[in-house]
Design a protein that fits this description.
CATH architecture of the largest domain: Alpha-Beta Barrel
Number of helices: 12
Strand order of the largest sheet: 1-2-3-4-5-6-7-11
Structural class: alpha/beta
CATH superfamily of the largest domain: Aldolase class I
Radius of gyration: 21 Å
Shape: globular
CATH topology of the largest domain: TIM Barrel
Distance between the termini: 49 Å
Strand content: 5-15%
């Protein structure tokens, strides 16, 4: 006989209201950022992505704890010069005063600062630390980290190897939300955002996007001649899911399943959490037999109905498209937008909706 562990669901929140909704939807843990008074966010996260005050953070943490849910604060802001150290110390101390349960840290300098403060709190290594193998995870573990959130660009097999080789640290992976063609925190487009604004205005539906990642490009095949293949956002910072990968992630032994979406509407945060809560419980309750292959086939049949759930969109509907939300099958599945698949960030199979949005063939 073989066994599978039940991983925790870590869901994003950006306010007390969203925290109540997400906890009610079944999150095991919630995570958020908090606005730093007087600081402009280096990573350009708008205010709507963050809890507005430390008092609100305290209300969130107390409510979550009353429901048996941990509150984790993400410190994705690096300090880049000496004058920021005092500001970051004050920010971290103010978050700690609200009785939170953990810190997500995405910068080695910041991790050192947190350690030097002597805080008695679990530390989670953000995906910004780009752990892609068990050696990197082991290095981060030695810095006093309890959990490592792996980079998105890994296969399930590689994730399983990391879990097996690093039994003393928890491993968390992404299951739903935005992706990026770059390794996290290595974006060379953000600084030149204004220079590509004209490109973003070439087709309707892109106005107001924070980066050029979703701008469509004409893709040509060059050989004996030149043939236009498609028009697609090849950099593609868009949504992916891991519905079909959940049984494999259970088997791999990951500790946490992370949903991306602090900057997205409360409806997205709640509905996505609710969907994965139901599916994780279905998988965990399914009786395990002696055949892994038969068990996985049975689970895949159970997953199929979840693909008919409405897709919670990040982008507004394009002109000419129905405002009714399409299903996950019609969007993510049709385009092969699945985490942990080879080259999963590039839409080689544009859906009918994408072809109409981008003018692709």
């Amino acid at each position: 006989m073989w066994t599978m562990s039940r991983p925790k669901i870590l869901s994003p929140v950006s306010s007390f209201e969203s925290a109540v909704g997400v906890v009610s939807a079944g999150a095991d843990e919630i995570y958020c950022a908090v606005q730093i008074p007087g600081a402009e966010h280096i990573l350009n996260r708008p205010a709507g992505c963050c809890v507005s005050t430390y008092d609100e953070l305290g209300n969130i943490a107390r409510y979550a704890r009353s429901q048996g849910v941990d509150t984790i604060v993400t410190l994705e802001l690096p300090f880049m010069s000496e004058f920021m150290i005092g500001q970051m110390r004050e920010h971290i101390a103010s978050c700690m005063d609200q009785d939170i349960d953990g810190l997500i840290v995405g910068d080695l300098g910041l991790l050192t600062l947190v350690r030097d403060m002597g805080l008695d709190i679990p530390l989670y290594a953000s995906t910004y630390l780009v752990a892609l193998n068990y050696e990197a995870v082991d290095f981060i573990r030695k810095l006093g980290v309890k959990r490592v959130i792996l980079e998105r660009h890994m296969s399930v097999e590689e994730i399983g190897q990391v879990v097996q080789r690093n039994p003393d640290v928890e491993i968390e992976v992404f299951i739903h939300g935005s992706g990026c063609s770059n390794i996290n925190f290595n974006c060379y487009l953000e600084g030149g955002r204004r220079k590509v604004e004209a490109l973003q205005q070439e087709y309707r539906g892109t106005k107001g996007l924070p980066t050029p990642c979703r701008t469509p490009f004409d893709v040509y095949e060059i050989g004996d001649g030149e043939r236009k293949v498609t028009r697609a956002p090849i950099l593609d910072g868009y949504t992916f899911c891991a519905l079909c990968r959940l049984p494999e992630l259970f088997e791999a032994g990951v500790t946490g399943l992370k949903i991306v979406g602090r900057c997205l509407p409360i409806t997205y945060q709640v509905k996505t959490t609710e969907m994965y809560r139901k599916l994780v419980d279905v998988i965990a309750q399914e009786e395990i037999g002696r055949s892994r292959r038969a068990h996985r086939r049975r689970l895949m049949r159970l997953i199929e109905p979840f693909k008919e759930e409405p897709f919670q969109p990040i982008l507004p509907p394009s002109p000419g498209l129905s405002s009714a939300p399409p299903s996950i099958r019609e969007t993510l599945c049709e385009e092969g937008r699945c985490y942990f698949s080879p080259l999963f960030h590039v839409p080689y199979r544009p859906s009918r909706r994408s072809r109409r949005r981008f003018g692709a063939r």
